[in-house]
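[RESIDUES AND BACKBONE]
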Amino acid sequence: MKYITFTIPCYNSENYMRRCVDSLLVGGEDVEILIIDDGSSDRTGAIADEYEMLYPNIVKAVHKPNGGHGSGVNKGLELAHGLYYKVVDSDWFDRDAYLKMLDKIKSFEVAQFPDLIICNYVYDHLDEGIQKPMNYRNVFPTEKMCNWNTIGHFHPSQYLIMHALMFQTKVLRQSGVKLPEHTFYVDNLFSYQPLPYAKNLYYMDIDLYHYYLGREDQSVNEKVLMKRIDQQIRVTKLMLGYYDVTKIQNKKLRHYMVRYLEIMMVICSILAIKSGSEENMAKKKALWEELKKSNPALYLRLRWGF
């Protein structure tokens, strides 16, 4: 049985993909690693083939035309055989935390597998030797099965990102999540759309995922964010369209999902303002006006929060 399918979407990742793959191989044959070569022009594809040859029972190299990060995530979910599905960008796992999580999954009875496992992640400025762990101790009980009714409260700027989440594969498929191609910031969609389908939650207070920061071309770099404001707005519109969150029955889940939308609207608005561009300010205004027209109740809630 494959307990976890790891998908690694790779585009021209030859310089840092080995660290990622090597950190995941620690799971042995209990896991499946899908390296998605997204039309790379460097040695990414050759390195993926090399790993598949060395570890044929663990690694599968998948070569496809370039479609962007979301396309790689979609392809991995399509091919996944694991009980759980985890996307790992070219970052890496802490070995001890990884083994602890895998042992915990294997200890569950078949009928008790949680729909969603949450772990801590670490912002790792590797080149500067600076790390910033992010946890959810204020929200979830540690290593106890819980649900949206029994969780605590998120801080105003605190939300669940892809690096912290590991859904059951069947939950993701039930949710119908499918990420758009050639679009950045789609991790927000992956972290948002499946949430109402996750009924049982389990939190492990371990610093599992190391999220590498520091590259100048990275999508979360502020200058890059401002250049890609259209894609940020596109993702935000998709999130607004998935559900009428004001009608979600569970109060805590509803509050969290509204807060997530609030954060996305704030990001779009701040980027437009900081860009100093009249064109971007017009886009910001159009985004708010569109929301006001389509869902006045949500508009007022987000405006009040903003």
Summary: The radius of gyration is 19 Å.
